[in-house]
Specification:
Layout: H1 2-41, H2 48-85, H3 88-94, H4 99-143, E1 155-160, E2 163-173, E3 178-187, E4 193-205, E5 208-218, E6 224-232, H5 237-244, H6 255-264, H7 270-280, H8 282-297, H9 307-332, H10 338-362
Antiparallel strand pairs: 1-2, 2-3, 3-4, 4-5, 5-6
Helix pairs in contact: 1-2, 1-4, 2-4, 2-8, 2-9, 4-8, 7-9, 7-10, 8-9, 8-10, 9-10
């Protein structure tokens, strides 16, 4: 009964600290995002401040996903340091409770935090980010301004009976079925570009692209404005999705179906598979962060928590995150199998944390 009560107490302490850190970081990200977007939109768009507020709010969950591991690490360190300073861990040890017993509820808290991120934050982030991109494109069009921070335009090529066409867009919506600020470069048999089409919107339909608000440019002819036109295509939605859409824009519950569909058309979909396995490994990664926090935060308060040691723990967590990102990039490129790329850093760091704690606690 004593172990259950203490376990619930440690679990609650970790969850509350994580909650407040999460809210604080989200507030900072929202304020910074609002400031940046307001500067990009300027005052030309109608209700620019309201649009910037909504776009910043919709983008915040996506950025928060990147901060989740660091929040878990800092929460673990602060929880254990606070318990040490109040001699609560000393009392727990005196009652015969080992370090593994009071670390277990904190690890459960980290695991629950990971599940919350997977099944609540991730779907909201994916849906919100796509909506934010659409709103940002409309707001910039209304203000007649373009951002200097626009991402590099992704391109794909199609070949039909009409010839080759290179297609790009600044914003991808509806998981690749809609392109905003799209560009179509049509190539003749000699390999030269004979026509350029700039469109506000392009929609992938069965067997063709439906283009709206287009501006056609040909050599030796004045630009022509076309309200609506079509370009034949043999591209499938799965191909466009795999080539143009960022994996982060797909909710976790849709990723397995998208990966299976892409692979059924002969596409490797390594980036999507790596992202999916990275999400699945997130709860385990957060537990590993707690073990790293424990290696630097469990000295008795009377001995003092060395700031250098705690900083070392933060740097170790940061190094784990960097290694995870690098290995994930290898997995997305198909150099390393997606499962290995997602789980290898977590397992290595977990074994390191367990080994260090075994040495410190059990000799």
């Amino acid at each position: 009964m004593i172990g259950l009560t203490l376990g619930r107490y440690f679990f609650t302490r970790y969850i509350l600290l994580t909650f407040w850190f999460f809210v604080g970081v989200a507030a900072i990200i929202f304020i910074v995002g609002f400031t940046e977007i307001s500067g990009q939109l300027g005052s030309g768009a109608e209700d620019a401040a309201g649009a910037a507020l909504l776009i910043a709010a919709l983008q915040t969950p996506m950025i928060m996903q990147q901060a989740v591991p660091f929040i878990g690490l800092v929460s673990g360190i602060v929880t254990l340091v606070a318990l040490n300073r109040k001699y609560e861990l000393v009392v727990a040890r005196a009652a015969g409770i080992s370090a593994w017993q009071f670390l277990t509820p904190i690890c459960f808290g980290a695991f629950a935090y990971g599940l919350f991120t997977l099944f609540v934050v991730n779907p909201i982030a994916s849906t919100g980010f796509e909506r934010a991109q659409s709103l940002e494109t409309e707001a910039r069009a209304a203000s007649k301004r373009s951002s200097a921070a626009q991402p590099v335009m992704p391109w794909i090529k199609q070949r039909t009976e009409e010839g080759e066409t290179i297609i790009g867009a600044t914003t991808i919506l509806q998981q690749g079925l809609e392109l905003a600020d799209a560009t179509f470069l049509r190539i003749d048999e000699s390999g030269e570009i004979f026509e350029r089409i700039d469109a506000a919107r392009a929609y992938l339909r069965e067997g063709h692209w439906e283009i709206a608000d287009a501006r056609k440019i040909r050599d030796g002819a004045p630009p022509e404005t076309v309200a609506r036109m079509e370009i034949a295509t043999n591209l499938m939605p799965e191909y466009v999705l795999e080539r143009l859409v960022r994996p982060e824009m797909i909710p976790i519950y849709e990723l397995p179906r998208k990966i299976a569909a892409a692979r059924s058309f002969g596409l490797r979909a390594d980036a999507f598979a790596t992202h999916f396995h990275s999400l699945i490994a997130l709860p385990a990664l957060l537990v590993t962060m707690v073990l790293i926090a424990a290696t630097v935060s469990m000295r008795f308060a009377r001995m003092g928590q060395s700031a250098t040691i705690i900083l070392g723990g933060v740097l170790a967590g940061f190094l784990l995150y960097v290694v995870s990102v690098l290995v994930k990039a290898l997995g997305s490129a198909g150099i390393v199998p997606p499962v290995v790329a997602s789980w290898f850093p977590v397992l290595v760091a977990g074994f390191f944390g367990v080994t260090f704690l075994l040495y410190k606690e059990d000799g």
